[in-house]
Amino acid sequence: MEPKYLFTLILLGTIIVITYATKKYATSTVEFYVGGRSFGWLMNGSAIAGDYLSAATFLGLAGLTFALGYDGIFYTFCFSVGLTILALFIAGPLRKFGKFTVPDFLAERFHSPSARLFAVVVVLAISGFYAAPQILGGAQILQLFFGTSYEAGVIMIVVVMIFYVGVGGMKGTTINQAVEIWIRFGAFLILFAGAIYAGLHYGKILELVQNWTGAVPGSGAYAKGGADIVANGAKWSYVGGGMFKSLTECISMVIGLSLGTLGLPHILLRFYTNPNAKEARYSALFAIVIASVFFTLALYLGTVGRYLFLEGAKAGTLTPVDFKAFVTGGMNMVIPTVADIIGGKWLLGIVVAGAFAAVFSNLSGLFIACSGALGHDLYTHFINKTSSEKQRVVAGKVSVVIIGVIYGILGLLVEKAAIGHLVGLAFNVAASTFAPIFLMGVWWRGMTEKGAIWGMVMGLASSLYMIFFVTTLPVWMQWRIPGLVTVPLAFLTVYIVSKIDGQVPADVNKFMKQIHSSDVKA
Amino acid sequence: MAIEKVGTINYKDLPPLDAETAATMNEELKISVILTIIYYAFLLGVTVLNYTSPGLMKTVLWGGMTVTWFATSVVSLFMASFIAWLHVFYYQKRVLQNSKNQGVV
What we know:
The complex is a heterodimer. A two-stranded antiparallel sheet of chain A has the order 1-2. Chain A has helices at about 5-20, 30-35, 40-50, 55-70, 70-80, 80-90, 90-95, 100-110, 115-145, 150-195, 200-210, 235, 245-260, 265-270, 275-315, 320-330, 335-385, 390-415, 420-430, 435-445, 450-470, 485-500, 510-515; strands at about 215, 230, 505. Chain A contains 23 helices and three strands. The mean pLDDT of chain A is about 90. Chain A has one domain (about 5-70, about 100-245, about 265-415): Sodium/glucose cotransporter, CATH 1.20.1730.10. Chain B is mainly alpha-helical. Chain B has a domain at about 35-100. Helices cover about 70% and strands about 10% of the residues of chain B. Chain B is built from three helices and three strands; from the N terminus they run βααββα. Chain B has helices spanning about 20-50, 55, 65-100, and strands spanning about 10, 60, 65. Chain B has a two-stranded antiparallel sheet with strand order 2-3. In chain B, α1 (about 20-50) packs antiparallel against α3 (about 65-100). The longest helix of chain B is centred in the last third of the chain and has 36 residues, at about 65-100. The two termini of chain B are about 35 Å apart. Classes of the chains: A mainly alpha, B mainly alpha. At the A-B interface, α5, α6, α11, α13 and α15 of A face β1, α1, β3 and α3 of B.
């Protein structure tokens, strides 16, 4: 059996065992949605990292570095900020709030059903835009390595997710996510060790790649049009070489991506699963350490890929399969190709399993967040307010199936879509809706219900407009991530509307005391 | 599960927070804001210097490793962990102090 099949089967077997072993725990709402709030920092920190480091991170960031050079690493640089800001301002207070879902926070902060309902819409929007590229990535991996059709790939991924989250609930999902992050991390560490053992030291390979100017010999055989690809090392190694047009676009990217993480529902939700605020803070720190090392390795491996491509082409040592993968395989093929060159089919097998682990891990978090929004926020608070505990758990499990069907349809629709827009939209909407609401809701007593709702409306509308109708904007404002405009706009709207309204919940002091109480007493 | 009806109050008429909660919030917010300013100053500094001082940012440290590549792909990621660790460190200090003040060990 080929290693890629073997390792993928081992991964699927592990998922099945963990899911069945944790099935018995998914019988109450507190177990199903927040895993009984029983996860320590090691488990939850690993699961947060698993949620955060998606397939796009595992395969895409190295691919971006390979193709775009400095612009690719700058993209990663913006991504890396978010978890830290989340740890500084939100993690501890959110755990002390201690409910089930992201809309719970707004609903209880303002005692407002309409705030809950609007938050549900935003959760579904952010998660949908974020899930679509993950499903697409997973289906493409199945196409590339196992020869399935795109449609079959989408269906397989959705079925695994429905089983994984629906049966195992938060407990099974968290343990699976924690195992999966270490599979990916292990794959990266083995690749890193292999590259260092092969003498590919960072400074040395960067020097060669930067000094490369001219055609890549032999690449024309695989490139469209038949002409050799031309590489420009100087352009590759500095900002503006492929993605960013201006300083304002770079700043907008820093703001949009860094604050976007702060509003991602599947990340926020994880802080409810710790037993106390102290564990939540340590979980965030541990996830940040994992993510930082992971990002550093991804960027190094992207550079290694570029070096192996250029040097292999020059020396004529690349196999036709690897050469073709570098030229036509797209960004997702860089890490698998590097693995194939450095460690052969065994290392490639580990990387393929790691890629699936990334897809499953990230998607399961989104499934849990959305099933909470439907099963807990909509069903329990609007459809059947007198539901029994058993009915609520069933509603959660039915929601997982509904979300699976919706995500499956979404996955089928986005096969040819501009994925960058979808990811950008998810982050920008999160940065312009939940980020201001959570930051101000946790730290400012003066925020009112109207301020929160209008802030979210303004953030959502401006994000949608600036991403989908970007060509109607002046050229200097046509940014990939329009956070520089939409985020301050959302913050200002919350502030101004709240100031004009002035009507805060009468128990806001009690709420603040609850989420900021001394950890000694807690 | 029904949302409790508590009504609203004008922000101007809202009584101040109790001293303990206000102190906890102030201390935590102060340290979080300081760390965020340091962090964003670094991030936006790298971003702006890339455009305003390309000569400096292209300075080679070793091999092909330039200042900007090192700051963006290594230092920034180390900083993410360091800033988060500092936050937890100050949190631990605060909890320890509170424990002493309240006679809890």
